Amino acid sequence: MPTAPDRDADERRAELDLARRARRGDAAAFDELVQRFHRPVLRFCWRLLRSADAEDLAQDAFVRAFVHFERFDPERPVLPWLIAIARRLCLDVLRRRKVASRLEILAVIDPPPPGPEGEASVREQLTRLDRALADLGEGPREAVILFHIEEMSYRDIAAALEVPMGTVMTWLHRGRAQLKKALDVEPHA
Amino acid sequence: MSREPDESARLGGLLRMLPAPEPSAQFASAARRRYLAAIEARARREALTGLGAALIGLAAVVVSVGTVIEPAALVAWLAETVADLARWTAGTGVVLALVPPIVWAPVVLGSAAMVLSLALLARARAVALAK
Prior knowledge:
A: 9 helices
């Protein structure tokens, strides 16, 4: 019976094989990779941009990743590589926009769906958390998204953000502290 | 002691509950269209690069040959070589036509035996030297 590390290694080999085929122009392999990774890549882009550009950039990240695959390090898994490319594209857009005002960014957040009275405090917390996440610095925000939402390892986050693992840990610590502070504030204070 | 991991887990749970957009129905097909266009553009680029490199190489050869050898001398040398080749071919044809095939058999066998003997001798010598 295969163990978890064996399964991971098999999975990684399969992803690498798909990526190599996509590099050579195999559209079916490309479709498979899009199917596997489009959700985390889109979520990451959306969390950084908070706008409709996210989908366009996520598609662009896939195309760039697998058409210019020769720069890929086969020791790394595919998702951090995709996230690294998506991140660079998002940062370019943010720089071009000169970081649109926070108010404008927050205006595009969908309001939480209405629910029973008991859910009111959770909704309130989610709204505060969303705002606090958008207010975090670039590094801590990316680290928190990848660790808590995409559930990536420190190693993969370091690869995706192209920083040492120690920096990832510092960013995570700082990000969490700020988010907890935002959550601990009294709702109507 | 366990307060921090609990808080981190609670924070993680809340973060995963944050609303995020679902990919549109056209996400995969739009990505595929862009991918195919990019692959085509890459193939065109590679073909153009190859053609450009070949043209540059050809131009470099022409320029270097042109500076080292006079074009007229080169043409004359080529014509002379072709004429020599034609003469040798004709001569070989005449010899083959004049000598009957029965004479060729011992010549061919003798030559093969000589080459084989020389090869065996060289091999034996190499083995002896290695010992």
